[in-house]
């Protein structure tokens, strides 16, 4: 028996440290792994499960560390990697939120003086799997045409039902868009919203477009004339209106749920879809934008991970693909995109929450979106909605020495979106590049969409809040988040419509 135990221990040790690595990774530190109690036999989080298999987080705390130097930041990064801790916010100079298991709290506080943000995580997590609770409710009669749907979070099946219902009820406006299947066989799909100018809307919008274009061109001319000669020119009465632009709609692609536990993302994205659909023909601004653009909206990109948060573990972040370590499933899909992959701000440890995968696009989910964008070839804007921190982020994250050639337009549009968002409920969002506003993070979506996908207005948006609730944002904040984010989204789309049409890119 003693020999059997030794043999088993040696075998386990080999499994935990000998996963395949690239030459670059082989030169790096080997990551230790200690098996912990698992949920359904496959979980690398420090927790226990309930009788129904739903993970518990008793006496775990979320601590906020004030990082004031690069030396301290590197020390924190090493500790997070060594102890396999769960970062709730990105590593950066400033504040960093970390989920710490009860057994590690004292040692962590000794090493990093910190503030307790959440004293006992389990107090904020359901006692049983939310998916089981849904079995006791009638969730088939949701009304998707008013705000009642956005008073609660919803599981994957209900969100899929929302999408299918919108397609069926508005067939002339909404089309079903499928991206592919996940590792566990779930379909990733959403809807594409686009209108066609007919009847009174056509004539009204053509007239308004022409008037608006004339005003913009005249204003631009006056600005230049004033700068050159110090006075404003007279505009001839016979000023020729610009010709009607060709109708070739550009696309705007948005999604939520790339990180599974960030439930506010899918909730906000579906709210945006609802407002675009129901506002068509009622709001002139929305009607014009829906006629001008194709809006592709994917509520949940990481369908496997999102389902897992409802059925097994509320804190699950990654997808559910197997890795080289049997106990540590999942790739962080937002560290797996194929632009400057594994260039910092991610981990080569399969047990890490920010595991970047064995190679670029090893995860199915980012590959789906990348293929979709490349195939369309007409995507002018992309937004990846996350939580939390209230940030409207621009490229780049992988290379902090690089500035986008379109940085002025991208920042101007983002700043305007943040202002429009703030006007609704007073919520403040910081705007800037990933590198400047948080810290280096490679393999992210917006870097790839901008640099490879040729999507000029590429953003990653971190929604509410700033850490009081973190990923467990209360349901009463869903609707306000949707309302303010939609206002920012509308401003962004309208900015793109005006700016790119003015310079001829929308033709």
TrEMBL record:
This is Carboxypeptidase M14A. Keywords: Carboxypeptidase, Disulfide bond, Hydrolase, Metal-binding, Metalloprotease, Protease, Secreted, Signal, Virulence, Zinc, Zymogen. Residues 1-18 form the signal peptide. The gene is CPA4. It comes from Entomortierella chlamydospora. The keyword Cytoplasm does not apply. The active site is at 462 (proton donor/acceptor). Residues 152-496 form the Peptidase M14 domain. CDD domains: M14_CP_A-B_like. Coiled coil: none annotated. Extracellular metalloprotease that contributes to pathogenicity. Its main location: secreted. GO terms for biological process: proteolysis. GO terms for molecular function: metallocarboxypeptidase activity; zinc ion binding. SMART domains: Zn_pept. One of its GO terms (cellular component) is extracellular space.
């Amino acid at each position: 028996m003693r020999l059997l135990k030794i043999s088993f221990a040696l075998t386990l040790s080999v499994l935990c440290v000998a996963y395949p690595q690239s030459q670059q990774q082989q030169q790096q530190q080997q990551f230790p792994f200690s098996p912990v109690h698992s949920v359904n036999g496959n979980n690398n989080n420090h927790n226990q499960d309930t009788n129904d298999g739903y993970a518990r987080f008793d006496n775990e705390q979320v601590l906020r560390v004030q990082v004031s130097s690069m030396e301290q930041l590197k020390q924190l990064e090493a500790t997070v990697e060594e102890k396999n801790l769960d970062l709730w916010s990105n590593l950066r100079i400033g504040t960093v939120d970390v989920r710490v298991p009860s057994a590690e709290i004292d040692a962590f506080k000794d090493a990093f003086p910190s503030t307790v943000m959440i004293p006992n995580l389990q107090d904020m997590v359901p006692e049983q799997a939310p998916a089981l609770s849904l079995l006791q409710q009638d969730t088939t009669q949701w009304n998707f045409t008013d705000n009642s749907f956005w008073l609660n979070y919803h599981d994957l099946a209900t969100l899929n039902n929302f999408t299918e219902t919108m397609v069926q009820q508005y067939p002339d406006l909404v089309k079903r868009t499928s991206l592919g299947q996940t590792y566990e066989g779930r379909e990733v799909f959403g809807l594409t919203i686009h209108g066609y100018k007919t009847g009174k809307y056509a004539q009204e919008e053509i007239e308004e477009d022409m008037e608006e274009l004339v005003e913009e061109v005249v204003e631009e001319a006056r600005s230049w004339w004033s700068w050159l000669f110090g006075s404003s020119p007279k505009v001839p009465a016979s000023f020729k209106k610009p010709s009607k632009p060709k109708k070739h709609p550009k696309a705007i692609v948005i999604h939520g749920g790339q990180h599974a536990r960030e439930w506010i993302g899918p909730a906000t994205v579906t709210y945006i879809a609802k407002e675009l659909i129901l506002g068509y023909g009622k709001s002139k601004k929305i009607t014009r934008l829906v006629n001008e653009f194709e809006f592709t909206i994917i509520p949940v990109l990481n369908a496997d991970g999102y389902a897992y948060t409802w059925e097994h573990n509320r804190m699950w972040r990654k997808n559910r693909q197997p890795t080289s370590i049997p106990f540590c499933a999942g790739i962080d899909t937002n560290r797996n995109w194929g632009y400057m992959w594994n260039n910092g701000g991610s981990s080569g440890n399969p047990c890490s929450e920010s595991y970047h995968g064995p190679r670029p696009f090893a995860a199915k989910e980012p590959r789906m979106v990348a293929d979709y964008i490349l195939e369309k070839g007409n995507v002018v804007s992309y937004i990846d909605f996350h939580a939390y921190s209230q940030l409207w982020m621009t490229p780049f994250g992988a290379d902090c020495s690089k500035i986008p050639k379109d940085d002025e337009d991208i920042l101007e549009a983002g700043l305007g979106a943040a202002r429009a968002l703030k006007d609704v409920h007073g919520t403040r969002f910081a705007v800037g590049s990933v590198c400047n506003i948080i810290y280096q993070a490679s393999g992210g979506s917006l870097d790839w969409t901008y640099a490879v996908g040729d999507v000029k207005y590429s953003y990653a948006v971190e929604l509410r809040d700033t850490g009081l609730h973190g990923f467990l944002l209360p349901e009463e904040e869903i609707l306000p988040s949707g309302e303010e984010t939609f206002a920012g989204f509308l401003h962004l789309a309208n900015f793109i419509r005006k700016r790119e049409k003015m310079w001829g890119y929308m033709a």
